[in-house]
């Protein structure tokens, strides 16, 4: 079983443990007469670090696949201010040697408790067709299994198995005071929108070994339309599902990104759709900022690294450091 | 039967004919003590003109609905450089009194010949699943009936019943040399994309009397996703339709507007999707410019009126006139 | 005292009541030989309606100022599908004749209860400097008085006296689950940000009679910088207010609009600033959609009027009507 | 000769004077049984005002062309807070009856003095080819004649005959300190760029009677390319004009609008082109603001009307008034 | 003569052949005490590959110029998943040793046949002035010579000598059905626009040795204005060329990029200009997608590399691979 | 004292001199068994160059801090077409060994003369409150000391100590002809705006050793609001400073970037604010282009390197070279 984790390693440490292969490529030595070495990124549930297999690289490269698990003996070195693992021995691990849960970051929350919370929210839905529709999804073990593995996004927020469940449960919590404050807002519709707006995520990504990667469908259709279709197909199984209700619900899914340039198929044209969009933004963006700030937290740092997607550094609040961002 | 048409009327003409009501509203006389008159826009297949019912307006207003047909006696007058019809008598028409074809602008082309051309194009599709899918649509009389009535857009181009058929047939013609020039381009897929990319239009609009108006579904879902779903549902009826082929076809539908800000759910990520998008632009935009230039053609005019959607006037090429467009 | 309210009037009603003048202008009769009449918009706390003073218009125009209160005798007529009040007699009202509360729309919520809720939230702030700062504002009767009168925005949401208080109190409620879900988020800082981000609103608007209009300062400086300065000046009165804390708080105010093109002086660069921005969006936008949907609610209408700021109609969900919005 | 000017007229004044027809159209009386009247905009060098010819309108309309001059007897009335001229008699004026200089706004500066200043600037150009090129333009009486009549823009700034000369001369003055401060900047090239960047304006506009209107060439080619071609053709007449020098000069003309979306064919890629662009902006925009502020100056007004091109009102600085601009 | 081509080389191959130098630079060995080696990119008509001259690098660097041809002896090695050529001997080639056609990618189509097709299209032009103008260009051997060498763009599509001819001939073919479908469209004008819109390309690029690079004129003026001027100058040689016709034609050239931000000097304001723009887009973009998809085609790849200009990967349609593109 | 400067060094030179450390990091040798070396960027007032400390790197790294000064013995080598300094010995310098003025680029102009010019401009301000306010700033030795050290921007223009003073003095010079040409423009207000619009820059940056880096305040508040507050606080010390004057001045500071997306808090809404913005652009952009062109000037180069902020290369005007910029 795995006893050493990336997050705990320090320069000088001797390592003997299991890791997941996030990336691998043969690269030449700088002195080209020496041939090639193997460059790796090794990961476990606590993080990832670069690794190098020097002379044996070409010999072992063929046995090691992206997304697979390896057993590694080596030593941690400091390199350009970061750590890397110099590998003395490496081999593919057998499935019985490790626990996959040690090797993949997953939600730190209790998945079954989150499913319970969703079940409870469904029970509170008074509109019978919406309740039945939700039961049809969340009572389906195949869907629940997919959900347990699904991230909410690939990289922006909740980007790990179980992340999608967290996103749903958190939005339910955030919706509570909003519903109290907004009597015009249909609680059943909002609950349904929260629980169904991202169901397309389960078809947008797939496992490649232990890695999460986008599917072709995810890239050619996108989770918004994938989700709309999953919902439409389930609705079609109910003979008497009211057409206007279906239309309102589908509109919420199709518009939950808020603006065409952010990926919305339609801009929100109902109160419930507007509420869903802004709850989604609130939960997604606050999670993203919290994660960036968390990753950037090191002793003596006042600012995170520049984040190219967000186009800024975040202020952490201790001593100032320069960032690469432009302040002109 | 109808013997006088809007396009032929001149100031001073006495009128006794049938028209479709495009718009109606009671408006007060400028001297408010005189009460209200009825303001109308009357239309037939050749065009439309404003009309006024003076004193009797309030009395007849209740009998006249938007989209309905009326019989009118009156006289044409010039008003602000345009013509208007001063109505002496007006009453709802009976269905047997008129031929709807006289009252609605439709394609000037032979609808059945266009359907034949499509049938021929389908026959030429070699890939059997695509051919079956196309047969499923175009062999379905209900779909064909909807198609005969469908415009391609509400206002931009081919904006009349039969316009959607014209758009399809024209794109097939435009695709011929493109396929010759581009051996990498899959002809069957492009034909299928041309014939199916806008099928959602038949659910985006509906008749309100004889008028075409958007449906709720058209505004809350949009023709792109409506069409994707219609195609997906037909595909689901074929047990063996290859999944990758379905994906390519759906991607073409979802990306045919080219850019998110122009309404594309995804940007084109295949050669066939890019070809479909640019054929659609070519046919749509050239039709739009041709229509604008045609409407603006009057003796002595070098420029059309300013078109607020296009944000420009078009040059017609005779003597110059000022336009409202800014040239600073 | 006022016994008839705009919201209760119907065509044919005889009116004898007090109204606030929202707008007034002399306009010529359509028959120009008849001279001018007086066009008014009259308002009370329940809404507003157009009014006309025919022959006496020029004579009374000089006595009636925008923002003042008048006593009116007249009759309600239908005009272009809306109502207007035909005025037989009109005169300026004396202050003792009416209750200003009848004439201005204000928050329907209990202002003192909202102030209590804020006081409670301040008590819960553990960080002593922030608590003191908040006391300095909310314990200041002059500030509280301004707050009771302040709208949150001129037209977009909470656009009436007391609206700013509603916006604050609602955001406090919305922040509760967010804080539970986000342990990294500093609750004291977020509370302070919620209560102070819009304090500049009290200087951005002023009363012109009973009307709310922007101040010169509001238009030349803007509520964001006005608020930042009000907060900075109060902070300067505390000898020991920690500089980094002040910086974080000011950054929240300066960035609460989220993007430069939406009016943010800086984009949010801290977790608390991001949270504040998205809570503000959630509360502001949901309120705006709720208000638009509420105003548009009439029997038989499925869609609101086209809203030029939002660039769309909202779906209300009964029978469809055409909207002016483009669906091409 | 003309003795009364628009800028001096007040309500109640009896008028007997000459005016230029900026606009004319027959419009119906509001009581449609009364037929049509003639709506005019009459102008002279001091401004413009609306005018109405009631009963005689149709009879005189045919004699009055846009851009022509008329003799008018009538009376000034107040209408919607503005003045309008009620015409009792109107007839076309004979050319010998009026001085065109009274009827068209022109530069208030001495045109010949401006041409002298340009001649002086040309004399100071040391580079012989540039000097010859400039002489070729400004020594050409036909070009000078066109220049005397040319505005710099149709509406934005210097929008009157002689305005282009003002723009050139002002930019020469503004360039002086810039050249002192920037030794790397080629003074001869900058002078040439200032004097030639807008020469295309003389072909962009034409006189329609006494009115300035855009030409077809102005709208289909634009002043930037028109100017580039005028300069290129003159250069082609010099056998030995250095090609790199021609290229630099043409680049300045083609890039003087700075950005593609502002009308630049290329972005500035030389120091001299960047300097030309920003001098052009400085002079053009400050002139535009000065003109807007000047027009808006009325007793008691703190803000100008909302300017739709600039999308704002300007602050004039006295008592505040509401503007239509949004401050939310 | 050349017997080995880049496209046919495999790791381990011994090489003795001629190549064009696309790029060269001395770089230090990673062990800096060993001095520098020469890094090259060598190309022929079938593709390009990196090459290294180890110890002799500094000695031979001076003899080898970018765009020149060299004779090379060496061996192919695999490096980072790509091939590179390790050079044992290298020397400049004599002109008589190689055929330039082996060393530069050119159109695979018969250049003279394309010129014939153009000649035929010109013969079909009925409008005599346009026909004469086209003869003036395409009957000019100097222009034809430039045309044979000209690419349509530097990198986006048809980016090789003869590419411009392909672009013209292909657009003629694409225009055929468009003209049949659009009777309002002037065939002669469209033919002239197709054949002349990109003539400026011959001045936008030049040969640097055997390489194509942009000229200064190309970067400071651009092919749009260069082409407009070439056409204007030829038109000026015809005494009787109708001015309105010249204007229409020039407008087509100046507007063929469609939008200011895409490089259009004016937006299309005529039907023919709109048609030209969309034909240009159709041919250019479909060619670009076809080329990208072709380059990306390797066994087992479902997606091309991320293309930074297009900001996406293209789907090729076999097994999925991750791409670097974001799908969040 | 320092006798050798970066700008004068050539390959092969022996170096013994003092330099400022702009950057330092330990990096591994390419042959990883050899451990790490120290990579440096060394600077003085004439420029900067990379340096390497091979074997001794790890031993000396701890003694050398960014922003500190070192004494170096070594030799200049050519590397990838640039020079680098191979360090034989390096040690921290004592403060008395060097003159900081040798080590930091500063304005080449006489700082006291610039302050005199400002004093003179203040004397010419007739409005007494503005004059007093300006005296309050520029008569304050602490502010003057900060000003002597302040750059105008971090990288775009005037990016060195004293640069802010240059920017102020240059704008005063550029304003002279503008004021002559624009009688409506308030000279006192413009002078005050020029001298105060960028005072926030002194708080936006700080020294880190001898390096200029942004402060936390600079990044969380920004120089626009920092400057507004500095001015507001000084104004508050004058009991009788007219409120409207303060408002106009503050508006100039808050709007001097011209557009929200360029960093303006408000768009300019007064003539003086518009003038300030365009003077700022003129001086800033021309300085930026002059600096880029100056840095790019090397024998035989016609184009500068591609500038990623400006998104273009600049033309210098000799023989053409390819640039990386796209010309398609």
Structure, described:
With 328 residues, chain A is an alpha+beta fold. Chain A is built from twelve helices and seven strands. In chain A, α6 (163-181) runs antiparallel to α7 and α7 (187-196) crosses α11. The radius of gyration of chain A is 23 Å and the shape is elongated.
Keyword list:
328 residues; two-stranded antiparallel sheet; 7 strands; 19% strand; 12 helices; alpha+beta; 5-stranded mixed barrel; homohexamer
Oligomeric description of these chains: homohexamer
Output the structural class of chain A.
alpha+beta
Q: What is the alpha-carbon Rg of chain A in Å?
A: 23 Å
* Strand-residue proportion of chain A: 15-25%
Q: What distance lies between the first and last C-alpha atoms of chain A, to the nearest angstrom?
A: 53 Å
Total helix count of chain A?
A: 12
Q: What strand line-up does the widest sheet of chain A have?
A: 1-2-3-5-4
Note poorly predicted spans of chain A: 319-328
The number of strands of chain A is 7
Largest interface in this structure: A-C, 39 and 39 residues
Q: pLDDT average of chain A, as an integer?
A: 89
**Major sheet of chain A: size, sense and barrel closure?**
5 strands, mixed, barrel
Write down the overall geometry of chain A.
Answer: elongated
Order of helices and strands of chain A: EEEHEEHHHHHHHEEHHHH
Helical proportion of chain A, percent range: 40-55%
């Amino acid at each position: 079983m795995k006893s050493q984790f990336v997050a705990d390693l320090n320069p000088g440490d001797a390592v003997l443990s299991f890791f997941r292969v996030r990336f691998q490529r043969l690269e030449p030595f700088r002195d080209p007469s020496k041939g090639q070495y193997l460059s790796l990124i090794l990961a476990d549930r606590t993080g990832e670090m670069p690794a190098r297999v020097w002379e044996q690289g070409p010999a072992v490269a063929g046995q090691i696949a992206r997304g697979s698990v390896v057993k590694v003996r080596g030593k941690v070195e400091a390199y350009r201010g970061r750590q890397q693992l110099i590998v003395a021995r490496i081999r593919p691990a057998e499935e019985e040697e490790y626990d996959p849960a040690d090797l993949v970051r997953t939600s730190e929350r209790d998945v079954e408790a989150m499913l319970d919370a969703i079940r409870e929210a469904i029970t509170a839905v008074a509109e019978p067709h919406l309740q039945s529709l939700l039961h049809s999804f969340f009572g389906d073990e195949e869907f629940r299994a997919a959900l347990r593995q699904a991230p909410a996004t690939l990289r922006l927020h909740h980007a790990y198995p179980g992340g999608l469940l967290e996103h749903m449960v958190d939005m339910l919590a955030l919706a509570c005071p909003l519903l109290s404050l907004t009597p015009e807002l249909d609680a059943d519709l909002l609950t349904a929108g929260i629980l169904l707006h991202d169901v397309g995520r389960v078809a947008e990504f797939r496992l490649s070994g232990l890695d999460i990667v986008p599917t072709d469908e995810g890239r050619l259709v996108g989770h918004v339309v994938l989700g709309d279709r999953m919902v439409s197909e389930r609705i079609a199984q109910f003979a008497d599902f009211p057409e206007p209700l279906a239309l309102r619900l589908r509109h919420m899914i199709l518009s939950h990104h808020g603006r065409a340039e952010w990926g919305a198929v339609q801009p929100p044209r109902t109160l419930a759709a507007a509420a869903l969009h802004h709850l989604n933004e609130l939960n997604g963006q606050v999670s993203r900022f919290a994660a960036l700030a968390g990753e950037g937290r090191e002793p003596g740092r006042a600012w995170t690294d520049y984040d190219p997607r967000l186009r800024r550094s975040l202020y952490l609040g201790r001593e100032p450091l320069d960032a690469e961002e432009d302040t002109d």
